[in-house]
Design brief:
This protein has 2 domains: 2-219, Spore Coat Polysaccharide Biosynthesis Protein SpsA, Chain A (Alpha-Beta Complex); 235-361, UDP N-Acetylglucosamine Acyltransferase, domain 1. It is an alpha/beta fold. The strands form 7 sheets. The chain has an 8-stranded mixed beta sheet with strand order 5-6-4-1-7-12-9-13. It has an 8-stranded parallel beta sheet with strand order 15-18-21-24-27-30-33-35, covered by helices on one side. β10 (142-146) and β11 (152-157) form a beta hairpin. Helix content is 19%, strand content 32%. The mean pLDDT is 94. The chain is elongated and about 65 Å long. The structure holds guanosine-5'-triphosphate. Residues 6-13, 23, 52, 54, 78, 81-84, 87, 105-107, 218 line the site of guanosine-5'-triphosphate.
């Protein structure tokens, strides 16, 4: 079976980290975000992934190459953004082989059972099936209304509290028959807004309720949430060889530590924290629910909580970084600075004064 993965978005809500690398290469428990999907597709009988690439395509091609986890990888390159539907139309010749195919948003982390999804799709006999996931509050997303047979009746975008027809939302994972391609015009197209409503109206679209882990990585909070979910699934302390932890330092599970990492005395790392390769952490530091990219240096007595620190950033001594803040690659946060509440710091910037309200520092 084949799977088309939408891998060409700009990831604007994760700037500045997405200014220097595509979102699908962001580390999650020290592997690229898309590696988790590839593993799961390979375990579920998919043999070929078609990666629809646009923004920073070369970085993606260089990282994954022609094969990964026994999956063959074919690239469909776009010379301009085509949205979520246009890339499927563009890759049509690479997808059609007499079998239905999967379509996935590349920035979803889930343990949706692709085999069961495809079996359900074949049993129902529609042209397309959407995986649906139950959430406590669908008002941030769009709610999906089904009939008793699992057919999609309607979509309600961002429903007001209490007005949603169900708590089921589109999980960004689909099975398509080749006939769906006839519903997608050439150019930039939104599958969600321009294709699914027509299929639903014609009674040819079904919904499959999926269970288990699911996160759509759009904003810093959901990126941290995905990291936490993967770490708790892995359990314990996942580590590579060759890291050095002072015997007085403590690592709280679940946590992931890369190779060449050094952790100084009396530091406490974790839970829910990924420390990438070659990160150096001084003494008396506290790092919790955070993602630290490769090559970062964190000076003595600094704390990082619910934050993401970009590659080779330098966090000096007595620094405090909190609450969904993003520090760009190669930035320097000077001694004694506090950064809180969703502050983003651009790559290579030096910050010498505390920033206590949400702001982007260019
Ligand atoms: P934001 O800019 O922060 O909204 O993030 P995004 O670029 O990831 O957009 P969005 O979350 O809407 O995208 C959903 C999925 O579609 C992601 O996996 C994107 O990589 C992918 N995607 C979005 N636009 C395009 C496109 O023009 N071409 C391709 N190939 N993929 C796209």
């Amino acid at each position: 079976m084949k799977a088309l993965i939408l891998a060409g978005g700009f990831g604007t809500r994760l700037r500045p980290l997405s200014c220097t690398r595509p979102k699908l290469l962001f580390p999650l428990a020290n592997q690229a975000l898309l590696d988790w999907t590839f593993k799961s597709l390979s375990d579920n009988g998919v043999d070929t992934a078609v990666l629809a690439v646009n923004y920073m395509a070369e970085a993606i091609v260089r990282y994954f190459g022609p094969t990964k986890f026994d999956l063959g990888i074919i690239y469909s390159r776009e010379d301009r953004p085509l949205g979520t539907g246009g890339p499927i139309k563009k890759a049509a010749d690479l997808l059609i082989d007499g079998e239905p195919f999967l379509v996935l948003n590349g920035d979803i982390i889930s343990d949706v059972d692709y085999r069961s999804l495809v079996e359900y799709h074949k049993k129902k006999g529609g042209l397309a099936t959407i995986a649906l996931i139950q959430v406590p509050d669908p008002s941030r997303y769009g709610s999906v209304e089904l009939d008793g047979e699992g057919r999609v009746l309607s979509f309600v975008e961002k429903p007001e509290l209490g007005m949603a027809p169900s708590n089921l939302i589109n999980a960004g994972i689909y099975v398509f028959e080749k006939e769906v391609l006839d519903y997608i015009p050439e150019g930039k197209v939104s599958t969600e807004n321009e294709v699914f409503p027509i299929l639903a109206k014609e009674g040819k679209l079904y919904g499959y309720e999926a269970h288990g882990m699911w996160v759509d990585i759009g904003v810093p909070e959901s990126y941290l949430e995905a990291n936490k979910m993967i770490l708790s699934k892995l359990g314990g302390i996942t580590s590579s060889n060759g890291y050095e932890v002072d015997e007085s330092a403590e690592i709280l599970e679940p946590c992931c530590i890369g190779s060449g990492v050094a952790i100084g005395s009396n530091s406490v790392i974790g839970p829910d924290t990924s420390i990438s390769d070659h990160v150096h952490i001084g003494q008396g530091c506290r790092i919790e629910n955070s993602i630290i990219f490769p090559g970062v240096t964190i000076g003595d007595y600094s704390s990082v909580k619910n934050a993401i620190i970009g590659e080779n950033a330098s966090i000096e001594r007595w620094v405090k970084i909190e609450s969904g803040s993003l520090i760009g690659d190669y930035a320097t946060i000077s001694d004694g600075v506090t950064i809180t509440q969703g502050v983003s710091i651009c790559p290579s910037k030096t910050v010498t004064e505390s920033i206590l309200s949400p702001r982007q520092v260019m």
